[in-house]
Amino acid sequence: AVFAATLDAPPSPEAARSHDESVVQVRQAHPEPLPARIGRYLVLRQLGRGGMGVVYSAYDPDLDRKVAVKVVRDGMQERSRGRSRVQQEAQAMARVSHPNVVHVYEVGEDHESQGGRVFIAMEFVPGMSLQHWQENHPLRDPQDFDARLRLYLQAAAGLAAAHQSSLIHRDFKPDNVALVGAGPMAVRAVR
């Protein structure tokens, strides 16, 4: 799952550097080779790994944009409703139109490099996680609390929009909230 929020101010150079180091640590912890392609998407790097699968940043040559591609792990595809469940959830996610919800571009199966595994291509949201931000911004005064509350309220708005479309996010946590840019907050939810 992925969430995104816009920060009121850009992250400090130290926080950004620390985030880049944590991404490198994730990549070192999982040294398996990157696929060159997933569907039509050219894989750039691994962004993360979780219970549902692996997420990569990738380039869409057809639309000339960067995307995030989640490859659903084998066990998730074989459970109860399997692939059709993943496809139905991706279709429901694609119907959610809300400033706090990441846009889904495509759901498909990659028969060439992923052995028929299901993938979901979605909006790429750069930034550090809310978890990382919280670790670097401890609660010291009421303004810190207000800033944190604004981020969580945006996450709640994204979750509410998903719930109105009969989607339930089963893995909401600060690690699944990405903070981006400067200006008003905007959280986006993806399963």
Description:
- The chain is an alpha+beta fold and 191 residues long.
- The protein has five helices and nine strands; from the N terminus they run E-H-E-E-E-E-H-H-E-E-E-H-H-E.
- It has a six-stranded antiparallel β-sheet.
- Strand 6 and strand 7 form a beta hairpin.
- The chain starts with a strand and ends in a 9-residue tail after the last strand.
- Residues 19-28 have low confidence and may be disordered.
Strand fraction: 25-35%
Number of contiguous helices: 5
Strand order, main sheet: write it out.
2-3-4-5-7-6
Level of helix content? 25-40%
Mean pLDDT over the full residue set? 75
Quaternary: single chain
Low-confidence residue ranges: 19-28
Q: Tell me the structural class.
A: alpha+beta
Shape: globular
Q: Give the helices and strands as they follow along the chain.
A: EHEEEEHHEEEHHE
Q: How many β-strand stretches?
A: 9
Sketch the major β-sheet.
Answer: 6 strands, antiparallel
Report the radius of gyration as a whole number of Å. 17 Å
Distance between the termini: 4 Å
List the helices and strands and how they pair.
Blueprint: E1 3-7, H1 13-29, E2 37-38, E3 41-49, E4 53-60, E5 65-72, H2 74-78, H3 82-95, E6 104-110, E7 117-123, E8 128-129, H4 130-136, H5 142-164, E9 177-182
Summarize this, please?
The chain is α+β, with helices and mostly antiparallel strands. It contains five helices and nine strands; from the N terminus they run βαββββααβββααβ.
Protein traits:
191 residues; 6-stranded antiparallel sheet; 3-stranded mixed sheet
